[in-house]
Amino acid sequence: MKVLAAMSGGVDSAVAAARAVEAGHDVVGVHLALSRMPGTLRTGSRGCCTIEDSMDAQRAANVIGIPYYVWDFSERFKLDVVDDFIAEYSAGRTPNPCMRCNERIKFAALLEKALDLGFDAVCTGHYAAIVTDADGNRELHRASDWAKDQSYVLGVLTAEQLAHAMFPLGATPSKAEVRAEAAARGLSVANKPDSHDICFIPDGDTRGWLAERVGTATGDILDRDGNRLGSHEGAHAYTVGQRKGLNIGYPSPDGRPRFVLEVRPVDNTVVVGPKEALDIAEIAGSRFTWAGLPPADAATPFTCEVQIRAHADPVPAVACVRDGELLIRPDVPLNGVAPGQTAVVYVGTRVLGQTTIDRTVSAVPA
After folding, report:
1. Buried b (16+ CB within 10 A) or exposed e, 235-270
2. How far is the C-alpha of 139 from the C-alpha of 293, rounded, in Å?
3. Whole-angstrom distance, CA of residue 2 vs CA of residue 323
4. In sequence order, which ranges of the chain are alpha helices (DSSP H)?
5. pLDDT band, residue 85 (cuts 50/70/90)
6. Nearest to residue 103, comparing CAs of 270, 289, 352, 254?
7. Active site located where (predicted)?
8. Contact 157, 353 (CB under 8 A)
9. CATH of the structural domain 2-184, one choice from 3.90.226.10, 3.20.20.240, 3.40.50.620, 1.10.3720.10
10. Alpha-carbon dihedral of residues 327, 280, 270, 326, nearest 10 degrees?
11. pLDDT at position 42, please?
């Protein structure tokens, strides 16, 4: 096959590209220039997609012996990921930009261009596996190394995208083995730190970054009964489950800490309360997709597991499609779920689908 290897400049994508070559594919490497500030340099292990990463990717491609290109996707990235991030926070939701990047950049814009150029598949260094069933249908599954499993952030992929996706690291027992393989291949990225945090906020100061773009506006911090406890300088700076930075100035009547329970952007208020009020008995979202074939009868409740964060443990649940929403009821309450987060549904190791959470139902009524 003719394969386009997305090379971030990290060790995982470099080894994935090398394995694709060894499997006999005709491989071309490409680095996505996503930053609108091309002079941006990496800070420690924060961020990705910088000039330094591009140079690391080129060195890896040279060692592997494949053609290498840099494609400028910065405008598309700004519109589909950065601007979406700002809009979601402004609406009181907590988005996951990595999900949007996989959905709209790596497996939409990139795949679309790859297919137009005659490529058969896009290869990435994600830790996930694709399994083909007896009828030839492709399914997305967890990686063999659950500690590094990245199937959660790939939950947005559709059947059409899975048909052209390749994850050579899915069966690798550990990240240590990938680094050892990179060293054996002579790849200089063998010991390069993993990137973390939000790539377009490399200093990690999400609140400050949002304040510069959304602005500040004083609003009230309320308890669940509507009593005013204090003030803030912008509801967009808060997210459900947050404990620090409330600046209320005095303890609750029972002396226990308070957490953000709700963000109301319309009237610029933040609602706080006890930790137990963060327990959620039901989540639902209308923006759902299936990763491969959907359930035979999605309207009939089916057992599954739900995961609401990339590194969270899956929780047994019952799900169904009702009134245009994917409705999920966990067997035990989920804690600190915010609208805008992504809920990924699993059946065993298989990723069945996902939804962006629009609403939640508390297990502890006010």
Report:
1. bbbbbbebeeebeeeeeeeeeeebbbbbbebeebbb
2. 8
3. 42
4. 11-22, 51-64, 74-77, 83-90, 97-101, 110-116, 159-162, 175-184, 206-214
5. very high
6. 289
7. 101, 199
8. no
9. 3.40.50.620
10. -10
11. 46
Q: Is 123 a catalytic residue?
A: no
- For residues 83 and 156, what is the distance between their CA atoms, to the nearest angstrom? 19
Q: How confident is the model at residue 238 (pLDDT cuts 50, 70, 90)?
A: confident
Measured distance CA(66)–CA(45) in Å, rounded: 26
For domain 278-362, the CATH architecture is Beta Barrel (2.40)
Quick check: is 98 catalytic?
no
- CA proximity to 145, closest of 121, 175, 120: 175
Q: Which residues pair with 306 in a beta bridge?
A: 315, 345
Q: Is 345 annotated as a binding residue?
A: no
Asked whether the predicted pLDDT for residue 201 surpasses 50, the reply is yes
Q: Which of 48, 49, 101, 123 is catalytic?
A: 101
